[in-house]
């Protein structure tokens, strides 16, 4: 196998694979690596190193001093940037190495490496304190909020060492949230810190993450616009429903007022009609009472006149009998005391009394009907449990007076009917005596004829 020889040739530089090397001084150690990866992957080194194309001879250039990293840390970072001694396309790093990569990629603005380290470390960091500290250092607000929530919800208290690492003010706020048991107020309690971390995180995002963030913001804006539109439509619908309800209630109120007015007018009209009817009823009852009194007076006058006339006739007859001879007077007395004539006279009186009884009973039934109708018309005023109608259930101006008048009229007509029935019974007794006398006279006539 022939040895490699240095051949100086002239030709054009390849646009891709013609890299200039760069020397870095880290903690006294010199590193010579291609500068192309630093320039295209980091805005920090793009400004620091300038263009990727420089002069052919760059050995005279002074090395670039890097602060904020140790030689061992820079070596781990170069392991990711320039993998060597491997045939695998997948690199394997420990947790500590990923932490170094996260720290340096954040420091030097290697956004793709920062995203890669975040994806590998996210499932490996379970301690909430470590998650908070790393989230603050690497500008990751989601890690910080996750750590806060874990400290609030875990049963163990926050120790003094943990409090020193996350800050005493943060510890006090977390204890307040534990006491209030309100996880929704994280954003308000740590608004300033989270807002600052979000701003810093945007400066360390990769192009893909920025695009995703922009899409996320556009989606949130669209959702916000949709929510606002829905809220606007909801408010418009509620306003429309409210106006319809107010209009309906107003119409119902107007209808109720109109109905109340009609009911009031109807009640007033019925009251006036009832008052007019009661006045007419009272007037009619008074007229009937007056007529009854006149009938009673007329009946008394007729009876008195008949009695006086009968007394005068009896006195006149007595005088005439006294003036007649004794035999003639005895014959006429016998004629007057004829039982058949007495029966006929009593029957005539009985017919007159029967008519009077019927008249008195008809008047009594009429009074009882009126009184019963009056009570029935006001029976609706009885309280639950009451069964009898009394004068306390009467209202109005004329009802008590009319009720007392109907009761008195019924009582008077009841007494008059009883008196007429009593006279009828007396006349019937008198008729019975005449019948007995007639029967006894018929039984004595055969004896008198045999004696003659």
UniProtKB/TrEMBL annotation:
<feature type="compositionally biased region" description="Polar residues">
    <location>
        <begin position="438"/>
        <end position="452"/>
    </location>
</feature>
<feature type="compositionally biased region" description="Basic and acidic residues">
    <location>
        <begin position="420"/>
        <end position="436"/>
    </location>
</feature>
<feature type="compositionally biased region" description="Basic and acidic residues">
    <location>
        <begin position="202"/>
        <end position="324"/>
    </location>
</feature>
<protein>
    <recommendedName>
        <fullName>BTB domain-containing protein</fullName>
    </recommendedName>
</protein>
<feature type="region of interest" description="Disordered">
    <location>
        <begin position="417"/>
        <end position="452"/>
    </location>
</feature>
<feature type="region of interest" description="Disordered">
    <location>
        <begin position="368"/>
        <end position="389"/>
    </location>
</feature>
<feature type="compositionally biased region" description="Basic and acidic residues">
    <location>
        <begin position="368"/>
        <end position="379"/>
    </location>
</feature>
<feature type="region of interest" description="Disordered">
    <location>
        <begin position="202"/>
        <end position="337"/>
    </location>
</feature>
């Amino acid at each position: 196998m022939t040895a490699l020889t240095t051949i100086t040739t002239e030709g054009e530089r390849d646009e891709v694979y013609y890299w200039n090397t760069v020397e870095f001084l880290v903690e006294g150690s010199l590193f010579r690596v291609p500068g192309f990866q630093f320039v295209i992957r980091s805005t920090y080194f793009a400004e620091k190193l300038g263009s990727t194309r420089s002069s052919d001879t760059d050995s005279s250039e002074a090395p670039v001093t890097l602060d904020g990293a140790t030689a061992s840390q820079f070596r781990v970072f170069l392991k990711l940037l320039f993998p060597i001694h491997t045939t695998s396309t997948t690199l394997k790093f420990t947790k500590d190495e990923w932490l170094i990569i996260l720290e340096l990629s954040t420091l030097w603005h290697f956004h793709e490496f920062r995203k890669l380290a975040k994806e590998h470390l996210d499932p490996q960091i379970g301690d909430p304190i470590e998650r908070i500290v790393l989230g603050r250092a690497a500008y990751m607000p989601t890690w910080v909020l996750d750590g806060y929530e874990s400290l609030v919800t875990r049963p163990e208290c926050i120790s003094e060492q943990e409090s020193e690492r996350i800050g005493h003010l943060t510890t006090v706020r977390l204890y307040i949230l534990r006491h209030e048991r309100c996880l929704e107020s994280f954003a308000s309690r740590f608004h300033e810190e989270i807002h600052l971390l979000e701003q810093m995180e945007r400066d360390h995002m990769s192009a893909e993450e920025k695009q995703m963030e922009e899409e996320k913001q556009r989606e949130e804006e669209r959702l916000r616009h949709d929510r606002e539109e829905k809220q606007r439509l909801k408010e418009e619908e509620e306003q429309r429903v409210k106006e319809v309800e107010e209009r309906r209630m107003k119409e119902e109120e107007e209808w109720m007022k109109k109905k109340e007015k009609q009911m009031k007018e109807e009640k007033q009209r019925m009251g006036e009609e009832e008052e007019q009817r009661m006045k007419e009823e009272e007037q009619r009852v008074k007229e009937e009472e007056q007529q009854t009194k006149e009938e009673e007076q007329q009946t008394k006058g007729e009876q008195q006149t008949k009695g006086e006339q009968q007394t005068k006739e009896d006195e006149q007859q007595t005088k005439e009998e006294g003036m007649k001879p004794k035999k003639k007077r005895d014959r006429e007395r016998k004629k007057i005391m004829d039982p058949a004539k007495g029966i006929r006279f009593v029957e005539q009186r009985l017919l007159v009394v029967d008519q009077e009884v019927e008249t008195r009973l008809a008047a009594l039934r009429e009074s009882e009907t009126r009184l019963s109708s009056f009570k029935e018309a006001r029976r609706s005023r009885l309280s639950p449990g009451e069964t009898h109608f009394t004068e306390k259930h009467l209202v109005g101006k004329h009802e008590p007076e009319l009720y007392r008048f109907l009761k008195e009229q019924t009582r008077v007509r009841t007494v008059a009917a009883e008196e007429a029935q009593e006279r009828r019974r007396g006349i019937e007794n008198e008729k019975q005596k005449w019948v007995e006398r007639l029967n006894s006279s018929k039984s004595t006539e055969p004896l008198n004829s045999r004696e003659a």
